[in-house]
Amino acid sequence: xxxxxxNNADHTAKINNPNGPKADxxxxxxxxxxxxxxxxxxxxxxxxxxxxxxxxxxxxxxxTGSGKTTQLPQYLFYGGFCRNGGVIGITQPRRVAAVTVAKxxxxxxxxxxxxxxxxxxxxxxxxxxxxxxxxxTDGLLLREALLDPxxxxxxxxxVDEAHERTVHTDxxxxxxxxxxxxxxxxxxxxxxxxxxxxxxxxxxxxxxxxESTGIMKHNQGKNLSPLKLIIMSASLDAKIFSxxxxxARAVHVxxxxxxxxxxxxxxxxTDYVDATLITIFQIxxxxxxxxxxxxxxxQEEIESIERLIQERLPKLPESKCKLLVIPIFxxxxxxxxxxxxxxxxxxxxxxxxATNIAETSVTIPGxxxxxxxxxxxxxxxxxxxxxxxxxxxxxxxxxxxQRSGRAGREGPGKCYRLYPENEFYKLKxxxxxxxxxxxxxxxxxxxxxxGVDDILGFDFIEEPDRMAIIKSMELLFLLxxxxxxxxxxxxxxxxxxxxxxDPIYSKALVVANQFNCLExxxxxxxxxxxxxxxxxxxxxxxESRTVxxxxxxxxxDHLTLLKIYRASDEFLxxxxxxxxxxxxxxxxxxxxxxxFINSRSLKHxxxxxxxxxxxxxxxxxxxxxxxxxxxxxRRCLAASFFLNAxxxxxxxTYRALSSGLAVQIHPSSVLFRMKxxxxxxxxxxxxxxxxxxxxSTIDYLWLPELAPQFYALxx
Length: 715
Ligand SMILES: Nc1ncnc2c1ncn2[C@@H]1O[C@H](COP(=O)(O)OP(=O)(O)OP(=O)(O)O)[C@@H](O)[C@H]1O
Description:
5 domains, 6-stranded parallel sheet, binds adenosine-5'-triphosphate, Rossmann fold, alpha/beta
């Protein structure tokens, strides 16, 4: 039976070579070289280098798959841009792209990953002193700027996939604009003991910064070279970026490697999940070899389609090959995410069910067919209520182009858009920048930590809503992160800025330290940071409720979550005593299934837990436990989440105290039937009703006692 894996030219080199592994290696290198030379960007290599030499800021727009992400950094390296030890930094909006592209480029350069070519993402640094081409997330580069405000080790920074306009990309652009200006003026010649208020309000040369960071000390008196800045994408409105950088030059790289045939439905689909399933099976039964990539909106949808495929597969007419379904979404542990990049076993066709995590930059070997239902889940923010609902909306044209661009990377491909063609033309050209639709508390915290005092005066590429800035500042003030003078408070604000969490959760950890229940809060925050850890198939709903009752705490969902986590931890530790770690993990997955727990979400929460535990320990906080004192724990929850308190009304519904919204306890909560007088909650779900999830019961009188800064204002 022929392998359905791919028609990848590179794969051919993997076939066992009778002349041994060395010949295999040579054949693969030759295939890679041939492939590189055939990329559309290869013919403009010299011109691009000239453009970078002549322009401090360059915008590059080129078709998906033309070779921007993998090739340009190599051209720059060989073009002499690392000559004085400078590093070429390339930012990506997503971790998975940073990792996989770095791996590919290391392979193309014939070097070990982490040497000349490396990557750095949060909690995972595969770079060394010899790294010259460094892929990283945009968020990571922002964190680097906290330690090294000049980004002094970089000679070139490439902001890739800028069209995504993540909040990190937007803030980074503002920061880079200032850093570039400062570096080109060479003001750093007399770095120490001076404070220069640069444009954007960033204090680049504060004495305390110089004193407090080794990197800055190292740079004292050193003449930093100018910084080159490149902004790249396949689907970018170059004008916005060009205007922002004072009329920066934009160049277009023409041509794509392989054609992608785009197909549309005749009619709008009423049920896109069902239409997706039908399309998967149709391709599988009727089309030639090649793997399938499907874009879905989130973990729950992916898991439900995964189940439906497995259910319907046996009923299909016999096909030449079998289907191997592999999910990929952000909260999946990274070793599981990497599975999508591996070739399937012989005789299998891969179907990858992905969120928009696989939408940009990545090349998944073997993909020939893309299914795009045209929907995406986005977080929004309502500044008037402070609510951040996740909603499912239509993609933009830019996203649709990126999605189709995941096919046609190793040969001609097909993209099935599950909507009529005229709908495509009605889509928004690009996605609304995240900064215009998100809670800005985290951004403000980071900007403050960078020394930007005047947030309203910061030169954003597109201004966020003033109201959203003010509301987010208010929130930070109420959380104690800002002083009356709007400076980062000491130590709370500084501690919060160091934690890679939503500010409310960062504050909860700081508060828990004071309540002596940091051990418990670390677990709770980790569990609140993942999608639901419960998993109950519809047909087993009653059974799951009975099983889960054994973990229920009458005091609420937070303590219930804590019990589940501890029970799973105890089970895992016991299993490790009698078997290998792998076997213990396997047993834990079985335990999860029996207890209707989503083992993927639990694993993700365990990873987050160990990461944030390391963070707080590095910050010098002491991880102590309040033991069985659940009263203390609930007081700590009230002190942490006081902004999300709600009071029972005579009709049995609740009124959220900060927004005034009428809400109800979600049926999945352990408090759904009990209906206590006063609650705090962590999530608001908007369907036809406003439901609150992750709820605990508290005493109303605790609120003015533990959060007088807010409840005194309400009086
Ligand atoms: N991990 C990989 N495995 C196999 N081939 C790869 C890999 N990464 C890249 N390629 C090949 O290199 C080509 C260029 O990829 P690259 O990511 O540089 O393009 P791009 O122009 O940046 O695309 P996009 O705009 O979609 O990010 C791909 O089309 C593919 O043929």
